[in-house]
Automatic annotation (TrEMBL):
Protein's name according to its UniProt entry: DUF1918 domain-containing protein
Organism of origin: Streptomyces griseomycini
Highest taxon of source: Bacteria
Domain DUF1918: 1-57
InterPro entries to which the protein is assigned, alphabetical: DUF1918 (IPR015035)
Pfam families: DUF1918
Amino acid sequence: MHATVGDQLVQHGRVVGQHDKVGEIVEVIGQEGNPPYRVRFEDGHEGVCSPGPDTEIRHKTHQQ
């Protein structure tokens, strides 16, 4: 998984009825775009995240 600053990190809900959690990557802490990432979520919460298999990176070049 590789990301750059400005990409979106989407954590998909794990159970029925749980919504996806979307945030913007504000810092790439790992080397060469690898995790961990500092992420600012839509609710204003910011944290360091090492994404799991239920996570998707949406690159800013592909967003519209």
